[in-house]
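Assess the record.
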Amino acid sequence: MHQVHINLPAYYLLQLVDTLSALGVDTENWLRDHHLQAAQFEEGSVELGLDQFRDLIEDALQRSQEPALGLLVGASLQAHTHGILGYAAMNSTHMRQGLELLERFISLRTDLVRIERHTHAGQLQVHFIEAADLGQARRHILQAIMLAIHNIIGLISMGSPLAAVVFPFAAGPEESLAQDLFACPVRYDQDWAGFIIHSDALERALPMADPAMFQEAARLCQREFDQRQQKAALSQKIMRLLLQKQGHFPSLTVMARLHHMSARTLHRRLLVEGTSYRAILDEVRQNLANEYLKTGKLTQQEIAYALGYNDSANFRRALRRWRLPSGSTESSS
């Protein structure tokens, strides 16, 4: 299977190292066991395989035995630690503008999640959608990322505009700390991860607003985003696009047209990267199937349809190949 890679700002990983050190973990030994060393984190960003990153975090949890590790790391990531993205957000004219900026450019800080905004019952929901299977570290990664974004929002609004924070997992021993750090009600066992924001806070003028500085910082964010897009591996671009399509997957020919090349050229370039369009699509479907199965709210037939399978038998064969459970998703009809 094609190996997914992620890019993280070195500062984020250094904050994790510092947090673990404060908890008494021998971080040199921890990093060495994962073929890493702190000197690598002095660069602007660090690229890790997704499997390597998950193993790194899961091992950190095992060594620290700290159920609030994600929250402790997230609490240390204040607005100024997010580079030009944090600076642009700090100069937003109003909350809606700041949220639009974060949704558009969060990939400059992490490609583990993406942000989507939805309106429900007159309130804005900010969804944090996992771009890959985060494994057993999911809880802590989501808590760290969401708290880091909360810290930006809290700073620019000079207070929390959040009506609630919601998580797609059960409450744990860190529940009280989460309540204190997010400074609003925290709900667990929900269908999604994210924030509910008071609608009257969206257009309110922000005290740190500087329209000219915002425009300049947003321009720099766009330039960095464009540069990253140009450098990103073609396979990674395709995977992100397929995750965005979710169920409406384009054919190889259409995907090639979207990237301004022929299907033959696309196929050849993916072979150079050690993969193929079919392999990438299969991995995306596996990741999405795993997420759908975790919710337990869709039948097998519904999941098959959502993943673009016209024949449910093909989907069942894929489940067996992926070694994913299928018994709880059978249609009741």
